[in-house]
Structure formats: C-alpha cells, structure tokens
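The data are quoted verbatim here:
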Amino acid sequence: MDRKTGGELLVGALERHGAERVFCVPGESYLAVLDALYDASIPVTVCRQEGGAAMMADAYGKLTGKPGICMVTRGPGATNASAGVHIAAQDSTPMILFIGQIERGMREREAFQEIDYRQMFGGIAKWVAEIDQADRVPEMLSRAFHVATSGRPGPVVLALPEDMLVETATVAQPPAWEQVETYPGLTQMADLQKRLWAAERPIAILGGSRWSEGAVEAFTRLSERFDLPVACSFRRQMLFDNLHPNYAGDVGIGINPKLLARIKASDLVLLVGGRLSEMPSQSYSLMEIPSPDQTLVHVHPDPEELGRVYRADLSINASPTAFCKAAEGLQPPNEIRWAGAAENAHQDYLDWSGARPEIPGRLQMSGVMDWLEKNLPEDAICTNGAGNYATWLHRFHRFRRYGTQAAPTSGSMGYGLPAAVAAKLMFPQNEVVCFAGDGCLQMTMQEFGTACQDGANIIVLAIDNGMYGTIRMHQEKTYPGRPSATRLVNPDFAALAESYGAFGARVETTAEFGPAFAAARASGKPAILHLMLDPEAITPAATLSQLRRAAEADR
C-alpha cells in the first residue's frame, strides 16, 4: 500500500465503490480531491450552480438506484446544494454530498464560510459527518454508500476539512458496497395470500424507491395472476406500464375522481414501497389515520415507516425488489370475486387521460401531447420540476417502461433541466425530454450550459405563460382578481439556446410543434423549444377567468 493523501483516498474509494460520475461545482476548499480526480477514471460534470449539481446527483440516484455523487465547496456552495439534498430526502433517493470544509484548527471561530454541517443538514440527511482523519476516509466512504442505499434510501452529507485532504495515510480500501436487502418472511407472504383471497375490492398502489426493472416485471405478473387493479403513486408512473390492461392510473395531484372513489371503496389496499404522503394521500384524506377503513398491507424497506402514519393490518419490512421476487409464489384464489375490476379501472384511466380539453390560445397542449405520444420511443426519459404545466405530462403521457421518469415528489421547482442533463449523460442512447414552465426553468436555467459543454443533447420544452402559474391559480381561488408577485417577464428562450450554440425554436401554434421537435432531434445538439402558452390556460380543466368567477361566486 502506498501512502496517499486524504483526497487521493477519497477518489480511490469512489472508484472502488463503482461511482460512475461526479457532479460538482469546484471550490478551493477541496482542491486536493479535484487534483486526485485528474488521474481517476471517473468522469466529472462541471455544473453552473450547486443546486443544479445536487439535483443531477439525485436524478442519477433515481434512475440507477446507486448513490449519485455531488461535490461542492463550503458555505454558499453547501447552502445552494441543500435544495437537492431536500429532494433526495423526500424522494428516498440515494445520494452522497461531499462538502469542502475549513481547516480543523480554525473551528469555532466563524472562519471564512464556516458552517456546522451536522446542525445544518441534520434534519434532512440520513447521516451527516465530518472526516477528521485521512486514515478514516475508506471507512467513512464505505459507511456512506451503505447508509445512502439501505432501508429507505436518502442523502448522506460528508464534510471534508481542507487540511485533512492533504494529510497522508497508509490504509487499505474495503470491498465495494453491496445492497443490503430486506426480504419478507414466508409467514407474511402466506398471510398476504389469505387476505387477497378474502378480498372483494382490492387495489395495489406502487411507489417509493428500491425498485428495479425485474421487480416491475414481477409485480406485473402478480397483477395478471390476480387480475389486480394497479395504481402508481405521485410521480412514480414508470413503475407500471400505463397501457397494461391492469393499470388504474396515478394517485397524485388532480387524481381521476373515479380512481379516488375506487380506492376509498376498496376493502384491501396493497401499498408497495410508498409512504402515501401528502400529495398521493390527497392531503391525508384518502385513508383514515392512524387506522384506515380499508385493510392495509404496507410493504416498505424501512421499519420506521411501517406504522409511522398508517397502522397497517399487515406490515411487511421488505424492499420492493425483494417483495416482488417473493410474490412470484403467491397464487390466486380459484374464483376471483373482483373479476373485471382491473379492466374497468383501466378503462376509467383511458377515458380520463384520453380526454382532450381545449384551452385558450393557438397552442393546444393536448395537441403537443398527442404528437409526443405518437413519436416518442417507449424508452424516452421524461423529466420535470414543479408547476401546473407538469399536469399535461402526468395525465396525458403513457409511461411504458421502468427508468423513464425523473420528477421530484417534493415539488421542487428547477428540477427538470438538471435531471435531464444527468439522464442524458448516463443514458446517451435514450431520448431525453425536459418539461419546464418558464418559472421552473429559470430556477436552474444555467445548467443548459452544462448540457452544451458535456454534449447532453436533451430537448427542453419551455412552456411559457408569463407567470408562476400554480401560485397564480391559488391566488385566483383564494383572492380572486388580486394577483400579486406572480408575473414574469421572460427572455427569448430559443435565442438563449442559440447563444450557447444549441438549437432553439419558437412554437406559437399546435401545427408548429411537430416540425420544431423533429428539427431539434435532427440538429444533434441540446435544444430548447419555446412554447408560447396563453396565460388563461392555467390548467387542462379551467381558465384563470373561470377560477376567478367561481371564487367570486362563492364569496
């Protein structure tokens, strides 16, 4: 073993644990790590702002199940990155954030950019620590990979004192991390089979993380054997083929009223991987708390989530991957009392998502979605942040395969663009489309430069209505006719793309969209299509004026 610096040991540990990419904004506080990366096999993506870098790391974790790696400098770099850490926490995404830190001898003096990271991140990260000795780097990195991925995955934050990174040590690297799996017991699976046999109106809801392509396929087979209606939780539609005859729709914002009624009327809910937090639970009104009226079977990899909000009739501490493998042995009853329920639920979904509402203006988003549904390949990856514009994607796009969706259940604006960059870098063979509102896009617009620099040929749909649309919607519902602090004056996004040497096009009518998208594809460059949406078209179901009049009538 050679004597190495803390920075070299850290990069060596990342290589040992299979890190495939580092997303970073450089800083003088971790120069020794950057120097070690110069000789490493790990590609480095240089981002424009730490929040974007952390969101890229989160998207990597979502799409691969392995920890996304982010590196930032101390103080302002860490505070900027906290946006991505919060997303990873609420979305149960494995991620490791490395923060350059002040020298050890300067602590407690409020040195330049000094922050106590245990205190700062303690409430949102799974584990926060500071590596005080170079010879402990391999140990701490091994622990970080295991903590980030075990149980309910989440973010780990490690601070790196500047002088520790140049300190030398002779220490061996441990073996690469391995996923700690949690399997269901045979008794629990037998209990589940009995409960399914006794049910009359069962439904499954899939969510959370710790899934795999194989797990999705296994659960699909389970649904077919039991003729079981299957719904997906908020922004987790990729967990079940949306055109499969058993798919019932998504349990999120703006839920199909028929699906909502079906879940409330069910006598058994099989919740796999998810938590049924505020958005999918319809502000915690979907089930009674703590004891639901329905029989609840809750499958989750973290025992602390079982019984935390909902007291399940059967709690199964297992990852979705392990549960779905074990579920291969479940056999349906001789007579399925709910026969036909899945077919009816799927037809309800098709009717709901197949409706094509007409909105004000020359650009019809239903026409945009129709074109995309006919022309996007099944393995296209779609990303988005937060805003009313995302309704068009969630309601009208058919997610067909696992690993084709990256969106924040935390509702964080600005996520779609950096997520698309990460997705394209990791899966260059897949088409990647980013949906972003004008407000959402400008939260992380600078990361389009990262896409151009790294050759991530994403296609961004900048859906521009000149406002923070979701907030304006709520204003009209609550304070009709009194808009405040929601108007936006925007740049020409197409021209901005061209200034980067990328492709840009302005889309003002439905007919212009298809040719513009095709031209973006053919350009072989990152692209922004600037979609000009009428401000009145605030949701697929209502205009701003309609919302205002309804609110005024209720007064």
In short: The chain has three domains: 4-169, 186-350, 355-554. The chain has a mean pLDDT of 96.
